[in-house]
Design goal:
The complex is a heterodimer of chains A (789) and B (413). Chain A is built from four helices and 48 strands. Chain A has 789 residues and is mainly β. The chains are: A mainly beta (789), B mainly beta (413).
Chain lengths: 789, 413
């Protein structure tokens, strides 16, 4: 009996303990528009139990003692909340929580300096993330959104779709790599590039200045831009259309559907069209005598640009064997008319280019493969698209759109209908293993192939000379991350860069007309780079970061083999190398609760060797590249942001770069170069942005918000040529550009109407010498966003 | 309300302030006052700082180039474009843009009464490969190396700085061998224009290759009509002149001498079986003088001519590649007597010469006509050298600090 009693008590107490252990809280976190919020931490005060919400916004906290509790909910970008509740024995409480946007993040149109993603900023790398969602109502494309980040300068040759030159902390062109969801964008062709991708495609854009984390792979020397697309698994539709000056029309459609069984379909489609017929100030040459009619204010007439792209993915998510398996295709085309050459003096009226992209792709991701903590991902794509340059009209135009027609087979510049495919393939694999809370390892490999083939229907006999040119590139990286504590983590990594180029050159063995033979040539590189990155939180709101990398950039296929238009290949190019040092600090502070301030500062030093630099070929007919100069750069950039309640936010950022020529002796010279330690010319070195936004809540109706935004861009004047040389010099003048916008959001962001005025004061803008950019322009945008959970 | 209007006013003020002070970045001309030239001499030296790429030369001026030094550091006029070529004619200094096939500004400079070089006009012209003074005009030729089958000839009025006339010449028909006639240069001979050319494939990644490496051609055009009158041919050496290089010189007697580098190529191979040599067309004739053949390769011990500069009195300065059989690399200089066919390496020249100032625009004789000037760019610095024409002796003159000398011209004001 006694024993029974004891047993019963025991069982009961175990049972009660068991039941007791079963007490839990779960639910879903949503924002004002009903969208789930992932990555929110929910903590039980005075206890150890906590949970982090998953991608769908769900959280689940187990093992809570019954009784009174306070839940602490905090997420970056949202107001923290406290919830008091009483939990009964064994109760499984369902609690859905709506979070309010916090002040500094409510901004609808300005880039907020502090990132939306806590994870991104917690990295030891020098990274700035743009929360693209905040820009969905604006008419920006990715390149213009990036232009507002400190350290970044995007230079364009004209209007929509024009050629752009991206510079990040003084690194330009191919030194900075672009990624789409971690996959290098090298092989996407002209139909899918930064200057034609609308901001709505991205969820966020990460800008890595200097040292690039190992999982991004590839041979980024000076930094990387990673565009993270919407990975939301819900069913949603986001449609927008904008129109404005210069007959500009742009639309985007992003939609996704995920069934309960994990079947998913994602479609991103976008279109851009513009006549780019903005007015410019030019001297117009007489079509016959070449005499100038000075300072005419006339419209551009041959600058239409349009592109259309669809990206579709089908697959499954959330399976045991595949967290994600997507098969997709990117289809797109672009058309661009060429109005001018490198200077406004050369005018064209018929020359144009077109290209397309047909790129099947596959993405596979699995977590906890074989053992817990072992994650694997694999991506692959192959671009079957072509590029074509069409110049067949034997005419000479002037700015009045008059032309002289000549007889015979000629051209405006170089007669061509050359059409080529680069047949780029790319595969990336990533294997990561979290051994314990403190130790994790990562292995990353990026492999790419290139094989060019092309022909020109105007010159069918030339085909036999066109031998394939092939490149195989492989970059293998191994990284280790040590998370000592919440406060301190460090990553070290080593990378192997290898490249093999094979090509054949035609020659005439007998000297007789038409006799052709081929010689096979091969060249290869193998280099090892390494680096370290570390971050320490002095206080939760005060973070310091430091990193170093010895990195390489392998010559691009175009640099090796030319672009068949203006660039001649140089198969003897060596990889470019650089030592990068970065130091960053960020700090947030509240003053009397309502005033919030954040400070970010970065210091960097680069020491680059064998800079791949453009020069003219020996008979000065085309451009080619050479390993010519050594360059150092000491740069600083900083940003300060301020916000007051939910009513106002403002920020300012500045960048200064001290790029100096470090080539003491030019090739074959015994005298010190006159340009030694001179500033690198034709490169902006002091520039900044300022922005401010005012918010009016519940305008006309509850849930409707009116936002008034202002953005100011400043670029200091810089010389076209070396500063130390000459006394009568050519200069790219100081630039101011002011944009204003008004956004009205209805029903918590479901419907949005925006109007924008770009270049409000109609300032003259030039990013490149004499190449004028659009003056004052107006745009309007409507957007509909629907999200079903 | 009052407060808001105050802010609005402030905002409008900022916007206005930002728009008020834009600068233009275009070139502009200066006013020029005509004057009677006093016969004073000014040398214009064009130099590119060593190590620069893709930028045009700086224009430097000096009264005397026989000594002293000059530098591009903090001195000189910058020009737009990447490559420029120069001609002086009718008291004007013309700077022509080589813009990779695009049209560009030709800038015209003059010297003011005070001796300052100022830009007085600019007009639009095509990128050309040939530029020559013919009568009172400049003759420019745009020669496509692929695609287009027509070369365009432009006649420029030197006084007015504008295009006087234009002419198309089908260079595939002219070559008549399936290739293209690529004019190397043009020279006024009497009242005609002699334009030597090289035959090139113009395609297939080997535009400058040819299957006809052992012939020379000079096309003869009337002026100003620019009608093709004849092609003078020979098979004793290879093509005359070189890409962007003047192959012909007219002596005081009116005889025409032309050199061949014998550098015809096919793919990466040099395929000419003929020697680098000088041939001649006698005054008043339009045939090669078959009794004259100056085998320079043999006389020099196996060297090839890179370019030439006619000095005076049948004396020609030859720029030779510095290794026997070479077709590129450093230079070695020689003076030859065209009539007696004597060949002498010059003395007083630095060991290794990377390049010289442009030989096509040679009006840089001293006032007494006894001394010629040439810019020599060497690994240890760049100098203008004085050439004593009678003896062929070189002595260093002005040092050009840091800049590669691309041309020296003389103007009288």
């Amino acid at each position: 009996m006694h024993i029974k009693k004891i047993l019963l008590t025991g069982i009961l107490s175990i049972l009660s303990l068991f039941l007791y252990a079963q007490s839990s809280i779960s639910g879903k976190l949503k924002d004002a528009s009903g969208a789930p919020i992932p990555g929110v931490s929910i903590k039980v005060q005075h206890g150890t139990a906590y949970a982090v919400s998953n991608v769908e916004g769900y959280y689940h906290i187990k093992n809570i003692h019954p009784g009174k509790h306070t839940l602490l909910i905090s997420a970056v970008g949202f107001k923290s909340q406290k919830k008091e509740l009483t939990l009964k024995d064994g109760e499984q409480l369902q609690l859905n929580i709506d979070l309010e946007n916090s002040i500094s993040e409510i901004n609808a149109v300005s880039v907020i300096g502090r990132s939306a993603s806590q994870e991104v900023n917690r990295q030891a790398f020098n990274v700035t993330a743009i929360d693209a969602k905040k820009l969905y109502n604006s008419t920006l494309d990715l390149s213009h959104a990036l232009d507002r980040v400190s350290g970044v300068r995007v230079r364009e040759t004209g209007g929509l779709g024009s050629r752009m030159n991206f510079s990040l902390n003084g690194f330009t062109g191919r030194q900075v790599k672009f990624f789409l969801d971690g996959v290098p964008m090298d092989n996407f062709g002209s139909s899918f590039q930064l200057n034609n991708i609308p901001i709505n495609l991205a969820e966020r854009v990460e800008v890595y200045k200097g040292v690039v984390p190992i999982w991004l792979g590839a041979d980024a020397l000076g930094g990387a831009i990673n565009i993270v697309t919407n990975t939301n698994r819900n069913t949603f539709v986001d449609v927008s259309y904008s129109f404005g000056s210069f007959n500009t029309h742009r639309s985007t459609l992003n939609a996704g559907y995920t069934s309960k069984t994990g079947f998913t379909v994602q479609v991103n489609a976008f279109q851009n069209y513009s006549d780019n017929n903005y007015k410019v100030w030019v001297n117009v040459a007489d079509i016959n005598t070449g005499d100038y009619y000075p300072k005419q204010h006339i419209k551009r007439f041959h600058d239409t640009y349009h592109n259309e792209t669809v990206i579709a993915n089908v697959g499954v998510v959330g399976k045991k064997w595949a967290d994600k398996l997507l098969v997709g295709i990117t289809l797109g085309k672009n058309y661009s008319e060429i109005q001018t050459g490198a200077r406004m003096v050369s005018v064209f009226g018929d020359w144009h280019r077109r290209g397309d992209i047909v790129m099947p792709s596959i993405k596979y991701q699995v977590k906890d493969m074989f053992v817990k903590g072992l994650n694997f991902s694999l991506t692959g794509n192959y671009n079957l698209g072509y590029e074509q340059n069409i110049d067949t009209m034997y005419r000479r135009y002037n700015w009045f759109q008059q032309y002289k027609q000549y007889n015979g087979k000629g051209s405006e510049r170089e007669r061509s209908m050359y059409k080529f495919r680069n047949n780029n393939g790319l595969a990336t694999a990533n294997l990561s293993y979290q051994l314990s809370q403190r130790h994790s390892f990562i292995l990353n490999d990026v492999f790419s192939t290139f094989s060019r083939s092309g022909k020109d229907e105007l010159f069918p006999n030339d085909e036999k000379y066109d031998q394939p040119k092939k490149v195989r590139k492989n970059i293998l990286g191994l990284g280790y991350k040590f998370d000592y504590s919440e406060k301190w983590n460090t990553s070290v990594f080593v990378k192997n860069y290898s490249q093999r180029n094979s090509y054949s050159q035609s020659y005439n063995p007998s000297g007789n007309w038409g006799d052709v033979a081929y010689k096979n040539q091969e060249s290869s590189f193998n280099k090892v780079g390494y680096g370290v990155a570390s971050t320490y939180f002095i206080k939760p709101s005060l973070q310091v970061k430091g990193s170093y990398e010895k990195s390489y950039r392998l010559p691009e296929t175009e640099e090796l083999f030319g672009d068949l238009i203006n660039l001649e290949g140089n198969v003897n190019l060596k990889p470019e190398s650089s030592n990068n040092y970065n130091l960053g600090i960020s700090y947030q502070v509240n003053i009397r609760k309502d005033h919030r301030l954040s400070f970010d500062g970065n210091l960097l030093y680069r020491d680059a060797k064998d800079f791949i630099r453009p020069m003219l070929n020996p008979n000065q007919t085309k451009q080619t590249n050479g390993n010519l100069a050594d360059v150092t750069n000491l740069g600083v950039d900083g940003e300060v942001r301020y916000s007051y309640k939910q009513l106002f936010t403002a920020g300012v950022n500045m960048t200064y770069q001290n790029l100096r020529n470090n080539t003491r002796f030019e090739d074959g010279q015994k005298e010190q170069s006159p340009l030694y330690r001179d500033r690198i010319p034709n490169m902006p070195y002091l520039f900044g942005n300022a922005d401010a936004s005012l918010f009016f809540h519940n305008v006309l109706k509850k849930g409707n918000t009116l936002t008034l935004g202002y953005n100011f861009l400043y670029v200091h004047a810089y010389y076209l040529s070396w500063p130390s040389q000459g006394d009568e010099k050519l200069e790219i003048p100081r630039q101011f550009c002011q944009d204003v916008n008004l956004v009205y959001s209805l029903a918590n962001g479901r419907y949005n109407i925006a109007v924008e005025c770009k270049n409000l004061a109609d300032n003259r803008l030039y990013d490149n010498f004499t190449l004028q950019k659009p003056g004052r322009a107006f745009y309007a945008k409507v957007r509909y966003f629907f999200n079903k959970n | 309300m009052k407060k808001i209007s105050k802010y609005l006013f402030l905002a409008a003020g900022i916007v206005f302030f930002m728009s008020a002070c834009d600068k233009e970045d275009t070139l502009s001309t200066e006013d020029f006052k005509e004057y009677e030239p006093q016969g004073r001499t000014k040398y214009i030296i064009t130099a590119t700082p060593v190590g620069t790429t893709g930028i045009a030369d700086y224009l430097l001026t000096a009264d005397d180039v026989s000594g002293g030094s000059i530098s591009t550091s903090g001195n000189g006029k910058e020009q737009d474009g990447s490559y420029r070529y120069y001609l002086t004619h009718k008291g004007r200094f013309f700077s022509l843009l080589y813009g990779q096939g695009n049209p560009g500004d030709v800038t015209t400079y003059r010297l003011t009464e005070g001796g300052k070089l100022v830009m007085t006009r600019f007009f639009q012209a095509e990128t050309v490969q040939v530029l020559a003074k013919v009568q009172d005009e400049l003759l420019l030729m745009k020669v496509p190396r692929s695609g287009n089958e027509n070369a365009s000839f432009y006649r420029i009025d030197a006084l007015k700085s504008r295009v006087n006339g234009e002419k198309q010449v089908n260079i595939v028909q002219l070559a008549a061998n399936g290739e293209r006639a690529h004019f190397t240069w043009a020279t006024q001979v009497g009242n005609k224009v002699f334009a030597p050319y090289m035959s090139i494939k113009g395609c297939c990644g080997d535009a400058f290759g040819t299957a006809y490496p052992d012939s020379s051609w000079i096309a003869v055009f009337s002026y100003p009509d620019l009608n093709l009158e004849k092609v003078i041919r020979d098979n004793r050496t290879s093509f005359i002149g070189n890409y962007f290089n003047n192959g012909l010189a007219v002596t005081e007697k009116g005889d025409v001498y032309g050199y061949s580098p014998a550098s015809a190529k096919n793919g990466s191979q040099y395929t000419s079986t003929k020697p680098s040599a000088i041939v001649r067309v006698l005054n008043g004739t339009t045939e090669f003088d078959q009794s004259y053949f100056f085998n320079v390769r043999e006389k020099s011990g196996g060297y090839n001519i890179s370019s030439q500069m006619y000095l005076a009195n049948n004396k020609m300065l030859l720029m030779m590649y510095d290794k026997p059989g070479a077709f590129n690399g450093n230079l070695k200089l020689a003076v030859v007597d065209l009539v007696s066919q004597t060949f002498d390496w010059v003395k007083g020249v630095p060991e290794s010469v990377i390049s010289t100032s442009a030989p096509y625009n040679n009006n840089t004789l001293s006032d007494d006509g006894k001394t010629a000037f040439i810019g020599l760019n060497t690994p240890s610095g760049n100098w203008i050298y004085k050439i004593d024409i009678a003896s062929g002796t070189f002595t260093p003159g002005m040092k050009v600090e840091g800049g590669t000398i691309t041309a020296i011209t003389k103007m009288i004001y």
